[in-house]
Amino acid sequence: MSMIETGKLDRRITLQIASTIKESGRPKTIWLELARVWAEVRDVPPSRAAEQMSEGASMANRPCRIRIRYRSDITPGMRVILDGRTLHVVSMPADLGLRGREGTEFMAEELTTAGQEP
């Protein structure tokens, strides 16, 4: 059976990477679109708080588990745009499937209301 079931990839997300530019002589971070992909997104229920805290995710920041088709370029520090929410990738991705190239799974959490990284 497949680790990534196409029918479960029902949410469109945008993956973003940070780039630094100089504006008025000062460095400024801008976010560039890396890709738009289909994903399975599952919010982590509060009952999993202890597990998620050990993985570095904060329950106050609405963590979720995201599965996509295999990509080798997902890293902590990237951003995910999902239905108007901005999420921060907080874990190293895990490769899924028998050969590790069927899918990619990672944890992300919503940025704070101030727009700062958690």
Strand content: over 45%
Shape: globular
Report the radius of gyration as a whole number of Å. Answer: 15 Å
SS content category: mainly beta
Helix content: under 10%
Query: How many helices does DSSP assign?
Result: 1
Task: State the end-to-end distance.
Answer: 37 Å
Mean pLDDT: 83
Unreliable spans: none
Q: Let me know the largest β-sheet.
A: 6 strands, antiparallel, barrel
Order of helices and strands: EEHEEEEE
- Strand line-up of the largest beta sheet: 1-2-3-7-5-4
Number of strands: 7
Explained architecture:
With 118 residues, the protein is mainly β. The protein contains 1 helix and 7 strands. It has one helix spanning 49-54; strands at residues 11-23, 26-43, 63-69, 79-82, 85-89, 94-96, 103-110. A 6-stranded antiparallel barrel has the order 1-2-3-7-5-4. The chain is globular and about 50 Å long. The chain starts with 10 loop residues before the first strand and ends in an 8-residue tail after the last strand.
